[in-house]
Amino acid sequence: MLIGYARVSTMDQNPALQMDALRDIGCERIFVEKASGSHRDRPQLKAALDYLREGDTLAVWKLSRLARSLTQVIKTASDIAERGIALKVLTQNIDTSTSEGRLFFHMTAAFDEFQRELIVENTRAGLKAAAKRGRRGGRPKAMNEQNIKHAEAMLKDTENYPFIGDVIDQLKIGRTAFYKYFPTDRIKQLRPDHSDAHKA
C-alpha cells in the first residue's frame, strides 16, 4: 500500500501540489503536516509512520519534506526499512525498494545536506562581510562639507539667526551632532560679539 506524507513549512502555504502528486501515483491515504522541517514535534509524520505496515511504501514529494537534516532523513529511512517498508521520493526518483534506489537515496540525501550547509555558510559569510563594510564605513555623517559651510554662514549672520537654536532648526540635526561640529570655542570665533550665542 502506498501511503503519502506531505508537509509545508507554515500555515499560509498550500500543500495541494504535493497532495496532487501523491494521489497521482496512487496513495491510498495522505498525512498532511504544517510545520517546519526542523520542528521535532510532527504529529502527522508520527501518525503516518505508525499507520505503515510491512510491505507498504511511504511516499513523499521531496526528501526535504521528510526532514531537514541528513541524520533525520537517514534515521527515518532506516527505521522504516527495518520494518520492511520502502521510501519513495517523487521529484528525486528515489525508491528504496531496490538496491540501486537505496544507494541513490544516500547519495541524494548527502547532497541535499551539503547544499543546505553551503547556503548557511554563504549566508554567514555575506553577513560577516556586510558587517565588516559597515564598521569600516561607520555611520553616515550628520553634516557634509556643504552643510558645514552653510552652518558657518548662519552662525555669522546674527541678525537673521540670533540664537543657536535657530541655526540647529534650519540644519535639521540634533544638538549633540551640531556641537560635535561646532564646539563652544568654534562658535565664539564665528560670532564673537554675540552674547546670546548659546541660547536656544
UniProtKB/TrEMBL annotation:
PROSITE patterns: RECOMBINASES_1 (PS00397), RECOMBINASES_3 (PS51736). The keyword S-adenosyl-L-methionine does not apply. GO terms for molecular function: DNA binding; DNA strand exchange activity. It comes from Sulfitobacter sp. DFL14. Keywords: DNA integration, DNA invertase, DNA recombination, DNA-binding, Plasmid. The keyword DNA-binding applies. Pfam families: Resolvase (PF00239). Belongs to the site-specific recombinase resolvase family. GO terms for biological process: DNA integration. SMART domains: Resolvase. The active site is at 9 (o-(5'-phospho-dna)-serine intermediate). It comes from the Bacteria. Residues 1-134 form the Resolvase/invertase-type recombinase catalytic domain. Transmembrane segments: none annotated. InterPro entries: Recombinase_CS, Resolv_N, Resolvase-like_N_sf, SSR_resolvase. This is Resolvase, N-terminal domain protein.
